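Sample entry follows:

_____
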Amino acid sequence: MRRLTAILCLTLAVLLGSVGVSWGADFQKGLDAAKQGDYATALREWKPLAEQGDAVAQYNLGLMYANGKGVPQNYKTAEKWWKLAAEQGDADAQFNLGVMYDEGQGVPQDYKTAVKWYRLAAEQGDASAQYNLGLMYANGKGVPQDYKTAEKWWKLAAEQGFARAQTNLGTMYDNGTGVLQDYVRAHMWWNIAASSGDKGAIKHRKQIAKEMPPNDISTAQRLARECVRKKYKGC
């Protein structure tokens, strides 16, 4: 569920074509420095850009403060920069703010605010945000408990190949939570998630297979292959 303490993800720092030559050169200089572990230079190059409103620089400064890269770890400062980026529509910053409020990391725990930020990122197609938003609905955190809405968001994440969402869909069909109980479909989703190495899915698939006749297992395997061919759409 957490992305805050991930290694600084420099691949997300992509400049838009409209950025000026000088501006872009400064950003690239900071990016090159960060790739080499020279976060002091990265900070020096990115901070002026962030202060002038560059959302990518703001997001990267948030990562540096969250991970303590070149600066003392400071979640409040990370939140400041992510909020500035998030308000400009940066989905990664929105997701990270959701995690902060969800877990009370650097801010008071506030599930409603977490849902707000998760939703903004999820609506932009962020699979991690879609998965976490599904968890909020399934657990009734910040929103009324609603398994159908949880399924909706998990399915969107699953369609992007997000294994944990696929595993949770399998569990829903296994238990009949928010959907009609369907062991074949449960096996299908667990089979798909297991192919990505999800340990929970591997365990659940093995257990449910003991209760299924061979014909049902064959059907589930066929459905899984078809789902993969369709790139998880309409499964």
